Amino acid sequence: MDRFETELVELLPRLRRFGRAIARDIHDADDLVQIAVERALGRRASWRTGTRLDSWMFTIMRNAWTDEVRMRGRRGRVVEADTGRAAKVADPAQASIETRLTARAAERALEALPEEQRMPVALVLIEGLSYREAAEVLGIPEGTLTSRLSRGRAELAATLLEGGGV
Amino acid sequence: MSISDQDLMAYVDGECDTAACAAVEAAAAVDPEIAARIERQRTLRRMIGRAHAEVVDEAVPERLLAAARGGPARVIDLAVARAKRSGPRAWAMVGGMAACLAAGLIVGQALNLGGEPLLVAAPAGGLSARGGLERVLTDQLATRQTGQAVQIGISFRSTDGRYCRTFRIRQRQDLAGLACREPKAWVVRVVTATPGPREATGMYSVASSPLPAPVAEMVDQMIAGQPLDAAGESTARAKGWR
């Protein structure tokens, strides 16, 4: 494996996480990662060494997802609750029940968000990208990103926090 | 003074410029309602940040590994792949075992706060921060502390690229230690009981709470460059200390 491939392998766990946040279904999520990885290898010449590989990969995943949605007409598809989500917690002894319940509640709330808010939330709050980086990945102005992020958060707060709202 | 939701969000995400950050902090200092809104935003950040966390620790399916290597599927040892992903393990474990030994001496005295455990043994050996300690390590900026039981000393980037923070747990028997952000948890590299106020022994100390020698020595060994300043801490926190 060369350096590019090594870095790609190291990124896989995070790509899978981002995949789950955007695709909502775990099988779709891994398919999406695979498609993105294949595309990335096919056009690796366009990746500039020294720039963030994660942002670049998230961009490819976002584009692949857009294509996928367009192709399969999935936008209206009803996602079955919790399909295949018998959460494989890597270390059950470490993750308390409360932690798992909180994570599951957060995942459900995230699933309920419209896609245009879900992606900014996933990139900034889960993947830790800056506003600028997330806006670049999504191909939108930073102001649009922050307003979607803000609306998404208000929704999440209403669902997850006592007393609702922000 | 009113603070918009967007300003508040930028503050919590570490995305405000110095003036905007200062305005939020000034408003929060005099207005408990704004302070409460900040706290809610932080809670939400923390909750959302944990979504899908378990997938990061799962073994990556073989077909994805094969795809990333650009070749046909090869038989690989998943355990080896996992070990590689989680970084230089052997070194971390040595520190972890030392931490266990130190903690063993003081266990039963000070490992929980208000009935909530603060440290748990990690499966690979070593100790992970939990409860109030985990929350403070993740959320608290060193420059903005009041008299809470768990205090942050300094934060820094280690020579192996992790974020590390020193902490102090104030109780009948004070504890001081150093924890570094690993993919799954804050792993405690050293923890020691501090019998009482003593002279600062390391290069790095915080005015109100000198670091005990074992902690200061560990900091000196591990630190890359200088400790983080307030802005650096804020940025690191916004990125989840990764």
Layout of helices and strands, plus pairs?
The complex is a heterodimer of chains A (166) and B (242).
Chain A (H helix, E strand, L loop, with lengths): L2 H21 L2 H17 L10 H20 L24 H16 L2 H12 L4 H8 L3 H19 L6
Helix pairs in contact in A: 1-2, 1-3, 2-3, 3-6, 4-7, 5-6, 5-7, 6-7
Chain B lengths: L4 H8 L5 H13 L1 H18 L3 H5 L4 H7 L9 H8 L3 H18 L5 E2 L2 E2 L1 E3 L5 E3 L1 H9 L10 E8 L5 E7 L4 E8 L4 E9 L18 H10 L7 H9 L4
Antiparallel strand pairs in B: 1-2, 3-4, 4-8, 5-6, 6-7, 7-8
Helix pairs in contact in B: 1-3, 2-3
Short description:
Chain A has 166 residues and is mainly alpha-helical.
What is the 3D shape of chain A? Answer: globular
| Uncertain regions spanning at least 5 consecutive residues of chain A | 74-93
From the N-terminal CA to the C-terminal CA of chain B, the straight-line distance is: 34 Å
The arrangement of helices and strands of chain B along the chain is HHHHHHHEEEEHEEEEHH
Your description of this structure?
The complex is a heterodimer of chains A (166) and B (242). Chain A is mostly helical and 166 residues long. Chain A contains 7 helices and no strands. The longest helix of chain A has 21 residues, at 3-23. The model of chain A is unreliable at 74-93 (pLDDT under 50). Chain B is α+β, with helices and mostly antiparallel strands and 242 residues long. Chain B contains 10 helices and 8 strands. Chain B has helices spanning 5-12, 18-30, 32-49, 53-57, 62-68, 78-85, 89-106, 131-139, 213-222, 230-238, and strands spanning 112-113, 116-117, 119-121, 127-129, 150-157, 163-169, 174-181, 186-194. Chain B is globular, with a radius of gyration of 20 Å. The interface between A and B is large, with 52 and 47 residues.
